[in-house]
Amino acid sequence: MKELDANIITQINAQGRKPVALIELYLGGVTLRYAANIDNIIFPYSGGNTYTAKAIDIGDVSQTLEGQIGKVTVKLDNTAKDMFAYVNNNVFQGKKLVIKRVFLDSNNHAPTASTEYIEIFSGTMDQPREISRNWVTVSACEGTPMPTRMIQDMYEKQCQHAFGDAQCNKDGYADLAALTASGTADSGTTNTLVDSILTQADDYWNYGAVEITKSGTTYKRKVKSFVASTDTITFDLALPVVVDATCTFQVWKGCPKSLDACQANNAYAASSDNKNNFGGCIHIGMWRED
User: Fold this and answer.
1) Which of the four pLDDT bands, split at 50, 70 and 90, describes residue 7?
2) Which of 14, 164, 177, 242 has the largest count of CB atoms under 10 Å?
């Protein structure tokens, strides 16, 4: 029996390894990197960017009859409500979306060379057209999308306002003092910031935003959680650098955009009753058939 050439065997083994799709959304001040995988992926594996594990549904790349323009639809998991803040604070339309495929080795590691990927798609995005508690859907095409006019306030329970803006506190009901804090970090990791000036109650900075500056480069992240006993903020996405005493930071408060937070004295929301300014639709109910 004739054996296969070693190069062919190498290629077969490579193709047999698990393929993983990497999604990159370039939103100007922040770049979101996600992996359609159960674990985070570092690519390139040695010192590369962290792609956060996320449930992702990628539609087929469609083309016009002539084949000049391709279009793809990507659904990003939003069950943790992390995508709401990015949609609220960033313009997606006209920004770049890139989809790459990499093959993991037997240790579930991505390739070590930055060139070892297959580019499936690269194009410019429209504004997200489905924004729900489960998914955020983004479409992109290999060209410049046409401007669209649409209602920006979706009919849903979640509040549409940015915490602390004129609409959030239009009538001045809420005490929105101490919306931000800044300083030089005491310590941290790629996922956390620790600083002794963060003396607020547990969850005070939850749902907010944080900027970390190190060696002249600023990284923007959302706050996943805040623990008062350790003065620790945890980011929603890992940084490509470690937070240490050379880093400066600024953090802004956020809220979960729920009516409960708007009317209650929660640590992570308004400290006074602000429900008259709630931007969601509180009377949406569950569909039922008798």
Assistant:
1) low
2) 164
